[in-house]
Amino acid sequence: MSYAYDDQNIFAKILRGEIPNNTVLETEHTLAFRDIAPKAPDHVLVIPKGPYVTFDHFCNTASEAEIVDFTRAAGQICKMIGAEPGAGGEGFRVISNAGEDGVQEVPHYHLHILAGRPLGPMLL
Ligand code: 5GP
């Protein structure tokens, strides 16, 4: 499957520094920042710096270095916000929306990390 990446999407603009963001963590291949409309006390978006549209696109075309960096950064954020159960936190939820059925608003691959309150059942 091929994906057309729209470099005018909001996260691409954030990566280019054209729109400000509230950065939580930046690594070589990953940027994590707070969601502008948080759905929980902690709502962090984790994005790869490369031009990927969805989970599938990222997993199947990014380099191993990018995937490792991204995955470790996401894990680090769970600890940084105090949500990692293995580190004394109360837990969190990770979501990635893709395409129309997934109601993906921004066509740049990202994870939502939600924490800071009981999140209820997963189905909306
Ligand atoms: P999606 O539906 O694509 O999975 O989620 C996109 C998320 O990006 C939404 O939760 C929305 O609030 C967030 N968002 C949209 N525009 C901006 C922005 O300019 N800055 C930040 N920090 N988040 C944004």
Automatic annotation (TrEMBL):
Record motif Histidine triad motif, residues: 108-112
Pfam assignment, any one: HIT
SUPFAM superfamilies (UniProt xref): HIT-like
Highest taxon listed in the record's lineage: Bacteria
Span of domain HIT: 10-124
UniProt name for this protein: HIT domain-containing protein
